[in-house]
Amino acid sequence: MEKDLHWRGSSYKDLLSFPEQARREAGYQLGFIQLGFESSDWKSMPTIGSGVREIRIHVEGEFRVIYIAKHEEAIYALHAFQKKTQKTSKRDIELARSRLRELEQESKRAREEEMTKTHVTPAGGNIFADLDVPDAENEKLRLVLLASIREWFESSGMTQIEAAESMGVKQPVLNDAINGRYQKFTIDRLVRLLASVGRRVNVTITNDRAA
Fold it and tell me: 76-95, pLDDT tens digit by residue?
């Protein structure tokens, strides 16, 4: 089930300062997490707290997004920053740690009150539009299609080689898809890949304008 994404402190504003390609990459990784999957490039951050992870982005520089996803009600982005040294700075670690501490100290009621003051990317929303990424609707559709391929593979019980053969592609192609390497796939190709394993894609058009 898709989760809301809550941005703590200045994390949303900080991520918006990333270059466009880095924002797009962050959108895919955070989008996968909202849909219940793991980021394709992450590491655990126990020095900050239990369950805290760091998304690693290697586009137009080195960028990081620190988050925690173990809470049932939402995913919390704690910090977003450009990494300029090999080791994460003490300042960045302390900032993420302090935001986690504030989150954990809040009571349920206080947390709900706090959510009215912080930026939220809701479940069912568009993380790419939120991050000011061009062609946000196309990117969200590509994310959902990639996630569908990953869900099919994880539920198939097959190895990557077996699943790729079932899909009619070579194993590296399937590996790219399930690891969210979106740059290698058009929307049309993803639709065809899903169709090859009996997954039909339905499109719903809605009118967001007031009547």
Answer: 999 999 999 888 999 999 99
Express each pLDDT in 70-80 by its tens digit. 888 899 999 99
Separation of alpha carbons 102 and 104, rounded Å: 6
